What we know:
Elements: E1 2-6, H1 10-21, E2 26-30, H2 41-44, E3 54-57, E4 63-66, H3 68-79, H4 87-117, H5 123-144, H6 157-166, H7 169-172, H8 180-190, H9 193-198, H10 207-221
Parallel strand pairs: 1-2
Antiparallel strand pairs: 1-3, 3-4
Helix pairs in contact: 1-3, 1-6, 4-5, 4-6, 5-8
The chain binds glutathione (GSH).
Amino acid sequence: MIELFTAATPNGFKVSIALEELSLSYTVRPISLGKLEQKEEWFLKINPNGRVPAIIDHGNGDFAVFESGAILIYLAEKTGKLLPTETRARSRVLQWLMFQMGGIGPMMGQANVFFRYAPEKIPYAIERYQRESRRLFEVLEGQLANHPYIANDEYSIADIALHSWVAGHEWSGVSIDGLPGLKRWLDLVGARPAVQKGRAVPPPLSPEERAKSVESAKKMLA
Length: 222
Ligand SMILES: N[C@@H](CCC(=O)N[C@@H](CS)C(=O)NCC(=O)O)C(=O)O
């Protein structure tokens, strides 16, 4: 049994989607980012970086894993699914996974911060992160214009990681206009039942709760 510590965020969705795709049984411990639960002593023992997501695999000596990319690899290796074993195919999946972890995630994350939460509107910062996110979307388009999925023509943990972020492009203020391959792939992956189930973990916030959470994020980042 796997225990998932998460919140309704792109990095959190990656793990709930993977757990659903892999039909692993799991329990959810929602973490309130607004109440800074992720910085509490008990949670830092699970993830020293004080962020969600993290898991504890109670079926493997209570082994804790943090960093969403590392969790995806751990779950894929545990089940032998969504990450090929052949050297080149595996490398292709890991290349696109790292592209998400080192590029799309940080750039869209900063676009969100400056576009949505920063107390001061700094046009240079907003444009810098939105432009860089759009550039990365165009890199994805180069692959998705001719391939059904991002790596090896097969659905993998790289699709899960990328979709979890790119699906939130409107929140980041980054357009997907003129990127038909990316749009096709967003719809294809977004239609998977496991993706829909995973994106509802933990259950979505009510509009009032969401407004409160945006206010707490603003305070946290001020
Ligand atoms: N590289 C980390 C990033 C995790 C991360 O930034 N999580 C955000 C939510 S998407 C978080 O916990 N934010 C709260 C905070 O920064 O304290 C991963 O991929 O797991």
